[in-house]
Design a protein that fits this description.
heterodimer; A: alpha+beta; 6-stranded mixed beta barrel; 22 strands; B: mainly alpha; two-stranded antiparallel ribbon; globular
């Protein structure tokens, strides 16, 4: 023996990780001897070859030791292993090693499986991260389960989630016992002065108790104090976290500063927490107390009541109490409340529109289908591999392996694959979210991110999917093996296995077809909205918003002067072909319906009373925006305050209320406005209709001259050959006219429209990509199963050919087998598609949920793809050499 | 009792035991086989083989004293048994008989 180079003062330490692994994974008594040997070897090697080589050697020896030494007996003397060992972790460790080896050995299979799983898990994770803030992540509201919300609706006017007026709110707040506290808030825009340029900000007016009801604590300063919402109190305000960061760079010294909101001084007292910035709440810049003024107009509905339910009260019981109160109110104010309904709802119903839930449900179904299709594909692969290894399984079962022992390695291997797939899926979801963040306009979609919940979700499905694609086939094959081994029969070629495979593929085809139909419908309604005729062409238009500060524009004359000056100055710009101002832009801004009377069909009840969306516009408006005049005339500069009050009707209003366009001219109608009162006006013209704000319907419209109805909040519009290059001149001109008037959203109208449609485009993109993924996966599955079945039936095909069948007949047989499965799947898929389409009916526009073109087209695509998938296996079957096929057995 | 047949690695381990005598334990066995055959021998495989040989009664083991070089851990010494020596002789004789007259 060679002398050992003794180094008593060891300077190099044993690598810790492998030593720890050996200590963890090798049982006593072997652990002590092995660790001792390893350390001795290490010391020698360190002295001989240096520490780096020694460490490398230690690692290698340790890893190999763990493998080999794990099968050493746990006790030094003889005796068989205890049965408990079968379940202990060491076996799982062996399975993991075996699994890793088999993954390495079949890289193609592993890559396909991991890719499939990554795509399917990625799709699910992506959707989950979209739904996450709405469904899972605890709402920033304290105990959101015991909050009740009051929403109003007016089905006839397509109002589904309407707000309430301040006096109504105050009455409910005083008399509802189901709420221990009923807070409320409403959102308006205002001009903020005193901090750089005049800016338009979104202001939430909230009752002083709202922060307390929602459980919000400001991160800087204080919340509102009781009584700060009473009329006549000095104004205080809280900044939203986002606005505080963006406009004040997160400077805490902003508390105590005074700014001007629409000319009123407001002292900043604090900053709201960022957690509240969810959905539309993320748009808010400033929070101020809501002035509880009982004399505010009752048809100015803009407050959303949200209250803490009293102990013992539920949303249902609160609604019951509320309905009694509301019915009484309706009797008191029939002119204002006829046609309106109101209800107390849960937080979930209040924070997102019903359509949001419908879309999320649909997308949830879609990604579940994608996952199921992926699992079906993998299950088919696992089944094929099980059949290929039937002899090994037979032997193991014959030697006494239990079913669990046969199945476990497959499950562990599946788990390894799906963990890799899950990691890939998170990466795909991350990429998808980055795309959504980039193209989205809504802050809600822009803020989506992967958080702990998303990761937990991805981990959860990664662990769950192997149960579907590996455990199930392995268990059923294990059963087949156990019985087949006894009967000396073969597995895999059995009828049962073939039926199982065909069932899987049929289900895949069905799911893919259903998904394609639904996404086809979704895309069609997207195209419908995009291509729908607005009533005018938005492309040459540049738009913006202004709000005239009350202190500088106190009376009608001042406002009318601003309008006249602005239109004149803008029209003089060289590249501008027309300029106008309006109270709101048709299509573009939310509709402001007003009751009208004096028509031919005034109706007998309040509910039947005519109404129309109301717009006050400057002269030149119709030419500028491009709404055609059908008959009569439009407004001129002669239609000024003090002149004959005039109005122009939209075509639908003229036809509905005066039977035809021509007979409306000269009629004297009364327009009821809560702020300005009822005013008479003579109809002087009829113009073309435009879509409403949802782009879906056309509503009756009435236009009045802005000079006769001056309003402080205005929308500006300029017609130019190149609206984006005209923007600079328009901005300079507006600033020159009055730099205390804030200009907001000055941009080409087309840009605003695509921003408004961006969420829609994202959802459709998701639908389409998920459905496309489903089709690809299902095609791969069909191809795999048919090729596999051709491979299995080589002998049978050989015999057929030997007995005189022509290759054509064999080919036809294979294709028809694929077609049979496909047609069964198509039939089932059409049923599922019908169900999904009816579910999605409320989010489809301009296309029927039973659209025959979509159903037919998708069915044709699926059948063609299925035929293509069986074509290459059929060719292979036709080329089978009968002699060789028979010899092979 | 039928003569025990030995695998190739088992032969190597038994031969190394024979050469090392009292000083035979994991590290020295590994080293000896590695030095003479040029193979990269892992401790784990040596211990597995020794356990198998011990089961067959060809070798015996005893636990030694802890040393500082091993971080205060004990060695497991192995010794060739009479049965082991017999099996080794038979196995080598068989090999010699098979190779007689062959030029390899």
């Amino acid at each position: 023996m060679r002398p050992s180079p003794g180094h008593p003062d060891r300077v190099v330490a044993v690598p810790r990780v492998p030593a720890w692994l050996v200590a963890r994974l090798v049982r006593e008594p072997h652990r002590e001897f092995l660790l001792g040997d390893l350390e001795e070897q290490f010391t020698r090697a360190a002295a001989q070859d240096g520490p780096a080589r020694a460490r490398h050697r230690y690692w290698r020896q340790a890893v190999r030791c763990i493998g080999a030494a794990r099968s050493l007996r746990p006790v030094p003397s003889g005796g068989r292993p205890s049965p408990a060992r079968r379940l202990d972790m060491s076996r799982v460790f062996d399975d993991i090693r075996t699994g890793l080896r088999s993954i390495r050995r079949s890289p193609g299979y592993s890559a396909v499986s991991i890719l499939t799983l990554a795509l399917a898990i990625g799709a699910n994770t992506l959707l989950f991260s979209i739904a996450n803030p709405l469904v899972v992540r605890p709402l920033p509201l304290k105990d959101s389960g015991t909050l009740g919300w009051i929403l109003m609706a007016h089905p006839e006017r397509q109002v589904t989630r309407g707000r309430v007026s301040v006096p109504d709110f105050m009455e409910w707040r005083a008399s509802l016992h189901s709420f221990s506290a009923l807070a409320g808030y409403g959102v308006r825009q205002a001009t903020l002065l005193g901090h750089g340029d005049a800016t338009r900000v979104v202001v939430a007016h909230a009752t002083a108790d709202l922060p307390e009801v929602w459980g919000l604590t400001p991160i800087v300063g204080r919340a509102f104090q009781p009584g700060e919402d009473a009329p006549g109190q000095p104004a205080v305000g809280l900044l939203s976290h986002r606005y505080w960061q963006a406009a004040f760079q997160g400077d805490p010294a902003v508390a105590g500063q005074t700014y001007f909101l629409d000319g009123r001084p407001v002292t900043v007292v604090g900053v709201m927490p960022a957690s509240i910035e969810l959905g539309t709440l993320s748009l808010i810049d400033v929070w101020v107390p809501l002035t509880l003024d009982a004399s505010a107009p009752r048809d100015d509905r803009w407050v959303l009541p949200t209250g803490r339910l009293a102990p013992g009260a539920t949303v249902a019981s609160a609604d019951a109490e509320f309905q009694t109160l509301f019915a009484a109110q309706q009797r008191d104010h029939p002119d204002l409340l006829d046609g309106w309904t109101a209800r107390v709802t849960t937080t979930q119903a209040a924070i997102a529109a019903e359509n949001t839930w419908v879309i999320l449900t649909l997308l949830g179904i879609v990604v579940t289908f994608v996952l199921l299709i992926a699992c079906a594909n993998l299950a088919n692969l696992v089944m094929a591999r099980l059949v290929a290894r039937r002899q090994e399984l037979d032997v193991r079962v014959a030697l006494g392996a239990t079913r669990w022992e046969v199945v476990r390695p497959w499950l562990v291997e599946g788990l390894l694959l799906s963990v890799c797939g899950g990691a890939g899926g998170v990466a795909i979801a991350y990429g998808g979210l980055r795309v959504i963040n980039a193209v989205a306009f809504e802050p809600f979609l822009r803020a989506l991110a992967i958080d702990g919940y998303v990761l937990a979700f991805a981990a959860g499905i990664s662990v769950a999917t192997p149960l579907l694609f590996a455990l199930w086939p392995a268990v059923s094959a294990g059963r087949a093996v156990t019985s087949a081994a006894l009967h000396g029969a073969r597995i895999g070629g059995t009828r049962g296995a073939a039926i199982r495979r065909n069932l899987l593929v049929g289900a895949q085809v069905a799911l893919a077809l259903a998904l394609l139909v639904v996404s086809g419908l979704a895309v069609q309604s997207m195209l419908f909205i995009r291509n729908s005729n607005l009533g005018y062409d938005p492309s040459p238009l540049l738009t913006w918003g202004v709000s005239l500060p009350a202190d500088r524009y106190a009376d009608d004359a001042a406002r009318a002067r601003y309008v006249a000056d602005t239109v004149r100055a803008l029209s003089a710009l060289p590249d501008v072909r027309g300029a106008a101002l309006a109270s709101a832009l048709p299509v573009f801004d939310a509709d402001a319906p007003r009751p009208i009377s004096g028509t031919r069909h005034d109706g007998d009840t309040e509910a039947e009373r005519p109404w129309a969306s109301w717009f006050a516009v400057s002269s030149g408006f119709f030419d500028t925006i491009g709404i055609p005049l059908l008959t009569g005339r439009t407004f001129t500069e002669a239609d000024r305050a003090g002149g004959l009050p005039v109005a122009v009707l939209g075509r639908l209003a003229a036809e509905r209320y005066f039977d035809d366009v021509g007979s409306a001219i000269g009629a004297r109608i009364v327009i009821h406005d809560s702020a300005l009162g009822a005013r008479e006006a003579t109809v002087i013209g009829v113009v073309g209709d435009t879509r409403d704000n949802q782009l879906l319907h056309t509503s009756p419209q009435v236009y009045v001259p802005l000079a006769q109805w001056p309003v402080p909040a205005l929308a500006g519009i300029v017609r130019a050959d190149d609206p984006s290059s005209a923007a600079t001149g328009v901005r300079t001109t507006l600033r020159r006219l009055d730099d205390a008037v804030a200009v907001s959203n000055l941009q080409p109208m087309t840009q605003t429209i695509s921003q408004a449609l961006s969420s829609n485009a994202i959802l459709n993109g998701l639908f389409l990509s998920f459905a496309g993924l489903a089709l690809v996966l299902a095609t791969a599955g069909l191809f795999g199963v048919i090729s596999y079945s051709v491979g299995q039936r080589r002998r049978e095909i050989g015999i057929r050919l030997a007995l005189g069948a022509s290759p054509r007949m064999v080919g036809r047989m294979v294709v028809s087998e694929g077609l049979r499965v496909t047609l069964a799947g198509v039939a089932a898929g059409l049923v599922i598609a019908m169900a999904l389409a009816s579910l999605s009916a409320s989010v489809l526009f301009g296309v029927s949920p039973r659209d025959p073109l979509t159903f037919g087209g998708v069915t044709a695509i699926v059948i063609i793809v299925a035929l293509a998938a069986s074509w290459s296996p059929a060719l292979r079957a036709m080329r089978v050499d009968p002699a060789r096929a028979l010899r092979a057995e | 009792m039928p003569p025990t047949t030995l695998g190739e690695f088992e032969q190597l381990v038994l031969l190394a035991l024979l050469r090392l005598g009292e000083d035979a334990y994991g590290v020295t066995l590994c080293q000896d086989i590695a030095d003479r055959t040029g193979r990269d021998v892992s401790l784990g495989s040596v211990y597995k083989t020794l356990e198998r040989l011990e089961d067959k009664g060809l070798v015996a083991s005893r636990v030694g004293e802890p040393t500082a070089e091993r971080g205060g851990r004990r060695k497991k010494h192995y010794r060739l048994q009479a049965l082991g020596q017999q099996a080794l002789q038979q196995s080598l004789a068989a090999l010699r008989n098979m190779t007689e007259g062959l030029e390899i």
